[in-house]
Amino acid sequence: MDAVRRSLLGQLARLSAGAALVPLSSLAPASLAQAGINQQPARREGDPSKRYGMLIDLRQCIGCQACTVSCHIENAAPLGQFRTTVSQYEVHHQESGELATFMLPRLCNHCENPPCVPVCPVEATYQQQDGIVVVDSDRCVGCAYCVNACPYDARFINERTQTADKCTFCAHRLEAGLLPACVESCVGGARIIGDMRNPDSQISRLINEHRDALMVLQPEKNTLPQVFYLGMDERFTTRPVAEPVALEVLAPHGQEMGYEFHH
Amino acid sequence: MNSTIELLAPRYDIAWYPWAVQYFFMIAVSYASLWLAAPALVFGKQSWLPTARLALIACVSTTLVAPVALLADLHQPLRFWHFYAYANTHSWMSIGSVVLPLYLISVLGFAWLAWRPALQARQQAAGLNGLIAKWLSMGSGATPKALVALVGLAALMLSSGIMLYTGAELAIVKARPLWNTIWLPPMLVASGFIAAAGLILVLNRVSRICAPDATRQMLYVLLAFCALAGLIALSWLLDGLNAHVGSVAAALESVRFSPSWRSTALWGGLTGVALFASVVFLLTRSAQRQPALFAWAWLLGLVAIHMGWMFRWVVLMDVQHVARNSAGFHHYGIPAGSSGILGIVGTFGLWLAAILLIELFIPWRQAQQGSQLPGNDQAASRAPLTANKGAPSHG
Ligand code: SF4
Ligand code: SF4
Ligand code: SF4
Fold this sequence. Notes:
The structure holds two protein chains of two kinds. Chain A is an alpha+beta fold. Chain A has six helices and twelve strands. Chain A has helices spanning 2-25, 66-74, 145-149, 171-175, 181-185, 202-210, and strands at residues 52-57, 85-93, 99-106, 125-127, 133-135, 155-157, 164-166, 191-195, 227-230, 242-244, 247-250, 256-260. In chain A, a hairpin with a 5-residue loop joins strand 4 (125-127) and strand 5. Chain B has two domains: 14-172 and 333-365, no CATH class; 177-328. In chain B, helix 1 packs antiparallel against helix 12 (297-321), helix 2 (49-73) packs across helix 7 and helix 8 (212-240) crosses helix 10. Chain B is an all-alpha fold. Chains A and B meet through helix 1, strand 2, strand 3, helix 3 and strand 10 of A and strand 1, helix 3 and helix 4 of B. Strand 10 (242-244) of chain A pairs parallel with strand 1 of chain B. The structure holds iron/sulfur cluster (3 copies). Chain B: It is a multi-pass membrane protein. Chain B: The chain crosses the membrane at residues 20-42, 54-72, 92-115, 146-167, 187-206, 218-238, 265-283, 295-316, 336-362. Chain B: It is found in: Cell membrane.
């Protein structure tokens, strides 16, 4: 059953990545906005002539976590809370006994149909016209509904501000003409960000070139993620059937932050 | 098939704390007991009056405490006014934030009307009780039955809004497949009625009212809603059994891979069946044996409350432990502070305080559907009861 399910999802992943790209390539403005309950409110702010997206070339990622660290510093996230992180897997081929590692950088997908946005009771989280999903931390009441609504664990309640926090594609840096911290620091050049409405941008060219090979995470949720993975194994597009390794990573004051490999 | 080991994953905390369980529990007991108070206090069925009096105190006390728990679950509680400053129609939570205060007002209005005749009768009492009764009853005018019924109807309508929004709020969350099913809202309602009926059984005992009619009626309510809950669970299961994704698939996966989910599922199933079987047992005993057995029905009431609360704990807390993006389950020890144990105990304490305050200052045992002649309410309430004697009871 799992094999069936996985390959089904893999196909969905491809189809859905393709489908998400259609409105962008034709430069049509996104028309998902509707008024009903749990439907997307109108986008506001941001440059309507742009649509930011990211392509992550997994073949280039070495799992160094430089992106994790630089993001952590740039955005002053509290210890143990991350706007981006790189999941690392060890894959064991049961017949040949071969071992391989798999790295999966994760961040907010700035979904075209973001489930985190309509749930916000005070419209503190919203999607800009350039596609970036942001949180107005002065308005956020910290109800954490959006944290539960994001299928990708991309959001968290910032311990310090007690409001919702997430990746913004480093909107403050983009505005200043800089690259996001994770892209800037990426050792392998695996993370490519850009305006997908500009046909000449690097990301547009790469998307055109690799259109059929691109995949997104959890396509069956119909969130239309705009972080595209190249060199992805479809089995990792959903929650992996994996055994977590239970040794805890502790912060200096003994707080558990994560799990680490031990064997 | 390959086997995979996840080497490094951050620790994702739960986003909603036990406060949320308390809110969902209190508000469900509140709307369900409102409906159990309705037959007598809205539709004038005198045989339900003892039940209605118990149901009303259950309803008012939980309605008062629920919003406190809700507020406490916000990480920025002082910004609650943002809900109204930035209200919108696309968020179920925003819709809820409008319905909830209206519901609260309607329940308080309804209870005030139902308690008013007894408060008026107490106006001349000595000491603080008399003062409070004088102040609360606001004059000695009549309380028309129609008005009580009307306000009751409004409260019932608003309570449907609460049932809808609390259920939908969870059911639309695609990110949590276990919530993302249309069977969750009706299950929340059914388990809410189970908990409310249980609470009324317990209140019937601890208030020493021990009305046998109320016990029998609540046993029938338990019977009906246990059966309904079973049907809903079965439909949910059959509905999703063959799907590769979705709520049932996620549940089966959880049960398959997690021992704690296995024992939770087992516990829930067994308790439900045991509760149902005991209720059937009690209701099928001979008329001579029933009084002795009914004296113990409050124990079933405790089990029913436990079911209603546990269901919400599993749905709201345990489901948040299922990792969405990484492997396995996140473990969350309930912290001792206000976001954990203290919060749970605190809300129950507050609730107890609310019940005690009502017990101290409000003659809730004499609640009734209005009165024409102030002061004569005792007689007025007794007359139809006498007339009803010998009539078949529609428990
Ligand atoms: S990844 Fe999560 S937080 Fe980001 S836009 Fe999509 S649903 Fe929202
Ligand atoms: S936590 Fe803040 S941003 Fe998220 S839904 Fe609640 S109010 Fe909106
Ligand atoms: S910095 Fe680049 S290479 Fe290093 S883990 Fe992040 S995405 Fe991979």
